[in-house]
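Help!! Second protein's tokens look totally different from the first
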Amino acid sequence: MSYKLIALDLDYTLFRTDLTIAESTRRAITDAQDKGVLVVLATGRMLGGVKPVYDSLALCSPVICGGGSIIYNNKFNRLELFSLDPLDAHGIVNLAAAYDIPVHVYVDGKVLYRAETPITDEYLSTFHLIGQITPDLCAMTDIKTPKALILKDVESIDKIAPIAREKFPHLNIVRSKPHYLEFTRKDVTKATALEYIGKLYGIDKSEMIAVGDNEIDESMISYAGLGCAVGNAIESTKSVADYISADCDHDGVGEIIHKFILGD
């Protein structure tokens, strides 16, 4: 099979655990691009946390952000935006408040949150985003956001995840990290974004590779002709993959590119 597109999750997939990219991985990505393959970053991150990576890799392909809720072209012009219903956004914010768990929504290029917390400060710093403390967030009923993110310690997310899924069965609710719970529309996933890009470029799903490590990646791993999990992926993600590579600290992405694209 000659693959024409590879979609890469970022955190703990393309990135090593120290949030860097191995030089061998960078070279493999460059070689794949030189061969005419689209290298698509597909992440739960918003654009501020993606653009520096995109630029450092000298990519020239579309970008999937917000778990599939926003799609950009190679000039960072927005192609599609799929927002949560404001009533759902309001409900998610209030559910998080009831359990004293931080929640983020994304409005006009800013991250809105109820109060300053260490985990929010770390999030904004890591992903290069602008935050805005919004004390009356729970009272807002007109929030237009592509996704909502609940984040705290793993134990808190373990507790609230089943409650959220019962309360919002019509939404797509998945973890992007063990302590991040993401909410998008049911019809919005990394897979639906890949389908959109495939139609745009005339690439069939059988000609795609998708690589990830967590729940948020499982839709695209299942959708692509070749679904791959890195060795550090959670078990449910490995179970839907066709191929399991080395982990993110041992050039799992590079291994996949060399094996299935470069033919080494």
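Here's the second one for comparison:
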Amino acid sequence: MTLFTVLFVAVLSRAPAETTAEPWRPLEAECQRREDAADYAAAGDACRRAFEAVPDGPLALNQRSLFAFKAVRLYKRAHKAGSDVAVLCPAVALLQAFSAQLATLPEGERPRDRADVADALQTLEGQLGGACTETPPDDLIEVGGADDRPKSDPLPKSEPPAARPVSVVRPLPQADTQAKRRPLGIAGWTTLGTGLGFGSAAIAMLARAAAMQAQVDGLNAMYPAASGVKIPADDAQRFHDATARGEQANRLAIGLGLPAIGLVLSGVALLAIDAHRERAGRRVALRPSPAGIGFRMEF
């Protein structure tokens, strides 16, 4: 039996186990298929069920985040395509469920997901305006023993209570405050500020070097070399001091200017990446696969 045949059999034997470990796979495929068919509401339902089917594990929240925000995006597209505003109600329920899961994490973990959930809930709440309602359950009869008779009389028929609007669950204020902090943005502004500080110091050194060079030029003009006039000791000392200080200032300007350029460029790059990530809203999920690690991105 060749090595290729052994590897082929091993991959085939792992396929059922992988399907069992990833029950959301068929739902993900259904979500994509319905999205391609422009059936956005049904695609959102499939992604929502895929969110619910993701088993617990170290990478579960990555996968759930991907499905949750993709489902919300699909529900919004369905509403934009002409569906009633009630199509957004499952999106609210899904975000509430994801918010409850995030609330179980230590404060400071997954700050971006917390912030995006809070923003999405606030936006949907404004669009719905109480359109989502909960239907109260039917009157229940307590089941009796073996004689099949109820232990108590059925509750009298009454008018159903008024529908209640769905309450929107928001993360705790502390978590929301932590979520607003973007590490890349903070690092970018810090790096840019440091670079500008170094640049200001380099400019100051250049100005000092120019002042020392002006003193040297003035002394050269007073005592030209061709005149043969001897320079007094005080002026000679001033000449040597101004020359040394000017050279030192030039070296400091170069030593400060080069890091300043690098820090400014790095700060600008970090801020650009942070702004791009904030606009794109992309999410990444990694999962094990027979060929190694699978990489998925939603944006």
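Reply: Different proteins will give different token patterns, so don't panic. The longest strand covers residues 283-289.
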